[in-house]
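Bug #77: duplicate submission created two jobs. Keeping one. Sequence:
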Amino acid sequence: MTSFEEAETEETVTCLHLTFYHPGQDEKMMFRCLNFSKREQVRADDAAKFGRDSSVCRYNLVDTRVSRIQFSLQFYRRLHTSEYAFEIKNLSKKTKLTVNQMELGHLNKIDLPWKCIISFGDYQILAEIQEGESVDYFETYLHLAKAPILQERCLPSLQPIPEKGISPSLFLSQGKSPTEIDENEL
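Kept job's structure:
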């Protein structure tokens, strides 16, 4: 047998992609202590903590408005399954944490959806889980967004769209109402 045949089976690693945004990031440089564009390994039994206290938090945000420990992410295996997941817990006594518009108060925790937006104050973090099989550790991969992650989203119009693609609002804005025409008259 060759060394290739005897080598251990390579396992994939769960990776948590986190994309950070803050409107004042260029002036205040609150993300300067984060290591962007490089995967980092985190032991499975360690909680990944985010906040401004560098002695406690693995991921430091240099901003006095951020709590000493803002929130933590804990990697775990779901009971009676082989699935792995993350749990997010708000550790801030003063700031509410929002996960996909679900508000978490101090010490509240929920399972992190596979893709979600975490926000507190002016901070926005897009979290995306890339599944893996490793039980010893997971990886984090941090990115910096140039534009806001949360955008004002316009709800689609509830008006029916005609087959010809002409919006009824176009006629209404001109003071005319739409009229029905027999298709043979076209």
